[in-house]
Amino acid sequence: MSSFDATPDPGAEPIRFGQRLKILRTKRGLTREILGGLLGHNAQWVKDLETGRLQIPRFDTVLAIAEALRVRDLADLTGRHVNDAGLFIGPGHPRLAAVAAAVNAMPGLNLEPAPPTAHVRARLDAAWRARHSAPNHRERIGALLPDLIRDAQLAARHAATPPERRAAQAVLAEVYSLTQFFVAYQPDSALLWRVAERGMVAAQESEDPHAIGVSAWLLAQAHRDSGLDHFDAADSITMDVLAYLRPLLPDAEHPVLSIAGALLFEAGYTAARRGDNPGAWSYWDQARKTAERLPPDFYDPITSFSQAIMGAHATTVAVELHAGGESVRQAARSEATVIPSRPRRARHRIEMARAYHLDGQPDTALAVLDQAFEAAPETIRYNGYAKRIILESVEAAAPDRRRRAAHLAEKVGLLAG
Q1: Would you say 380 and 369 are in contact if contact means Cβ atoms under 8 Å apart?
Q2: Please, which pLDDT band fits residue 1 given cuts at 50, 70 and 90?
Q3: How many CA atoms, within 13 angstroms, populate the side-chain half-sphere of residue 353?
Q4: Which pLDDT score, from 0 to 100, does residue 203 have?
């Protein structure tokens, strides 16, 4: 009998922190030198942790290790030593159950009359506007999604002609895209994958280049956020769809051009997470050149791709490359840029906070997180990086920083978890 078939011995000694660290580091493909460098230490320090020569570090260091290793569940790293903080997963939204029920329903069995696709399209456009303008954007779109999902499914199911069916499938694919924004970072990963895959199927049925590009953009993000083991899948999806779109780009309308630009940045984002500095900035530059072909006031309602977003994207690349000084320089350059979407603006503030945190400016990082909260509380509440900075600052030596961090932790809702 192989070890995989054996029944675990409940009396066996639990896996030590150091052993867990080594397993996760090896799985992520990081050497001790690289991991130590990301954390401001050397390879010997990592070795001493892994072999048990050093005790479990302070909680702020544990959080830093979790971020470097892309650990979503702290229990994977700490075992029973630290309670599960759900670092990269937010709370379950009160409307999650209703949205999940709508996704899981069998549209083919629904005998209700189908609404006109144009009517569903108009409601979907209004839902995107609500998402970008509302500080409580998950609440707003969570209230709209169940009916939108049902009606988009009905429209696609009962379309009478092939052109009508393709148009309805394009709308259905975009409804799933909006749904993925709602489901992301909530405690139901199976639902997230189901939504992402259904969106891709509907997009392919639509034969619409923009719908296909958007669904691929979101599916690639789902893979990348699942960790290093999924980076190849993220790259494969991104490159395949870019190859499909490339012949269309010389004469492409703005939505198709913008999704190509968004996919180019996603390739750079994944490269940055791999630590590929030249590749990350090369893709960013290609995305920037694509954005320059769009009107200055163009802003894609799904991907946020635009000329206005490229400064925010540059900050993200620098942060993911763990370049503290460069991150702050990019954040400063993007400061004057107005991002129309409240949740996207809040997310950029969080990326700026990460930049200041990397650069050893924790007080500025907290101030910027306060700005993120003011822009969209429901964005910061579901962001693991923001939680990590706040929790680390709660344990700071400086009393004033501890008080500010504790106040922000209460506002964000960390005490409710």
Answers
A1: yes
A2: very low
A3: 27
A4: 97
Report the Cα–Cα distance between both ends of the chain, in Å, rounded. 41
Give the other-Cβ count within 10 Å of 126's Cβ.
12
Residue whose pair of structure tokens reads 């993120």 in the numeric block: 372
- What does the domain layout of the chain look like in residue ranges? 17-78, 94-205, 208-296, 308-417
302 vs 92: CA distance, rounded Å: 23
Q: What separation in angstroms does the CA of 414 have from each of 86, 111, 188, 410?
A: 10, 44, 19, 6
d(CA 336, CA 354): 18
d(CA 325, CA 327): 5
Q: Classify domain 308-417 by CATH number.
A: 1.25.40
Q: Which CATH superfamily is domain 17-78 in?
A: lambda repressor-like DNA-binding domains (1.10.260.40)
Map residue 207 onto helix, strand or coil: coil
pTM for the whole thing?
0.80
pLDDT, tens digit, 9 for 90 and up, residues 34-89:
888 878 889 999 999 998 888 888 776 887 888 788 776 677 787 754 444 455 56
Q: How confident is the model at residue 14 (pLDDT cuts 50, 70, 90)?
A: low
134 contacts 344 by C-beta, under 8 angstroms: no
Q: What is the pLDDT of residue 267?
A: 98
Highest mean pLDDT out of 59-68, 124-133, 376-385: 124-133
- Rounded CA separation 133/231 (Å): 32
What is the DSSP-derived secondary structure letter of residue 112? S
Q: For residues 114 and 319, which has the higher predicted lDDT (pLDDT)?
A: 319
Q: What is the pLDDT of residue 89?
A: 61
* Nearest one of 130, 127, 180, 175 to 151, comparing CA atoms: 175
